[in-house]
Amino acid sequence: xxxxxxxxxxxxxxxxxxxxxxxxxxxxxxxxxxxxxxxxxxxxxxxxxxxxxxxxxxxxxxxxxxxxxxxxxxxxxxxxxxxxxxxxxxxxxxxxxxxxxxxxxxxxxxxxxxxxxxxxxxxxxxxxxxxxxxxxxxxxxxxxxxxxxxxxxxxxxxxxxxxxxxxxxxxxxxxxxxxxxxxxxxxxxxxxxxxxxxxxxxxxxxxxxxxxxxxxxxxxxxxxxxxxxxxxxxxxxxxxxxxxxxxxxxxxxxxxxxxxxxxxxxxxxxxxxxxxxxxxxxxxxxxxxxxxxxxxxxxxxxxxxxxxxxxxxxxxxxxxxxxxxxxxxxxxxxxxxxxxxxxxxxxxxxxxxxxxxxxxxxxxxxxxxxxxxxxxxxxxxxxxxxxxxxxxxxxxxxxxxxxxxxxxxxxxxxxxxxxxxxxxxxxxxxxxxxxxxxxxxxxxxxxxxxxxxxxxxxxxxxxxxxxxxxxxxxxxxxxxxxxxxxxxxxxxxxxxxxxxxxxxxxxxxxxxxxxxxxxxxxxxxxxxxxxxxxxxxxxxxxxxxxxxxxxxxxxxxxxxxxxxxxxxxxxxxxxxxxxxxxxxxxxxxxxxxxxxxxxxxxxxxxxxxxxxxxxxxxxxxxxxxxxxxxxxxxxxxxxxxxxxxxxxxxxxxxxxxxxxxxxxxxxxxxxxxx
Length: 674
Fold this sequence. Notes:
The chain has 674 residues and is an alpha+beta fold. 44% of the residues lie in helices and 22% in strands. It has 20 helices and 20 strands. The strands form five sheets. It has a five-stranded mixed beta sheet. Strand 10 and strand 11 form a beta hairpin. Helix 7 packs across helix 8 and helix 7 packs antiparallel against helix 9. The chain is extended.
């Protein structure tokens, strides 16, 4: 078979992005949108454009899609076409956040981080997840420049102090698809919560708190920079949601309800401490808002308590308010009164905060996607450092890199200095020249076509032969595994037979010795001092529940005071952990201790005099409560129990227990022997 000379591999060059002269910043929220154009120096070019939301009855993704459609209609007239780069700020309650203290985010691959994000989203129908991350905390590793951070993006686990944002890929695709061909200009897609979290670095020693008000939800944001603690929680209460409840109670339109709530302070008279049955039901405005305001107040208070107790961070001095805070007149004063925490309006708008970090590629949700994000016709695009490129181009680059590695390896194996043997070079050159001459003499490309068909047929034949060899190897492996199974089964049956024979001999000896005499009990006092660990472990497993587990179990020497004197004894130390809660973990530890101490069968306490509590402590790294118990061993307790049974007339209680246990084991073992 003849072949042409080696074909040069085509390498697609990576486009290096230049500094855009016109940058379009677009903020998309549930209450509307706002956009501004910046030049290369970051100065605004003209007045910003904005639009309020219509179709107020829509919620969730439908509402966000409607707002984005309106934004595209207005921006496509000029700003969208003139922009060299687009930076999106997305407000969505379905985006979840986490700090890097979790073990799932310390792994060394992006795939592991995506798996952690899929569990964090807790959506059964989520198939693919994307994520973005940014430095958060006083870690010297984050003092490097942007270029080094890009190189480290392939190793997410090395970042010990970061904030992560996770989103469903389908939601990101839905947003990008509405931009049509202009989506190729998008360089970042950042959650609206991140610029707010970034403000925590301005006061690194304090807890920073903020509220982002939306139409149907309010986002609670708590962050402590030096402690690297982050909490982002969404409460399903917003200005439009409250107005909808008022509209249903008062029998008015949604627009009228919003207009009245923005002009009049109808919140001040609502008392969340009063009983719900004694609420102000005579006023339809207050009756409609009361359940939602109670839930919002509870969610904020629970978030503050959790951040202070479980994340070991302090209480913020104030809460900064972002979003459309003027929709509900008096809401900030009402929350300040009952939270006993001042609410202040943010001194900088959210879009201005975004302009300070949009070009740094921090917390960019486009970077963590594993698959393509945009489809223009039949062409798919994936996001890289240079922006969106064709997915097929990335595949070509990957093949080129693999081919270059293979040729480099071939040159290394060919001989000294990376060169092939001379005979191989001559044969390859001769075959290539001869095939070219034959093709010219025939004057057509049939030879090339025939060569291609023969190559395809040879490839198919190799594939069939490989499948046959693989099937044969699989059969050999299965046969070898079955032989090993039979061998191990024979060994096991031999051990079982030996055990049954020894048990039969021991049983006959016990019967011949006279069974239930007192002398048997007295002569076996040394055996009674031994711990039956199987019974102890069974008792421990029965006392535990799904919320508690043991981490360490060991026997150590100790001193115990009996009758005013200190004696040397042993104690069994049990160390474990329980999930923290506001009122439940102490009860679960006490239940565990009571089940061990008050066992009716006396299985665990038959060798221990008492169980003492060593204490408990909150582990701030794993968010669990660790505890310890000590069971004090007393060698005389089992002897005392046996003497009591003998004095009561049960002379053969010990041997009867052994016989009952033996019969139970025989009954469990006999089906397996058949």
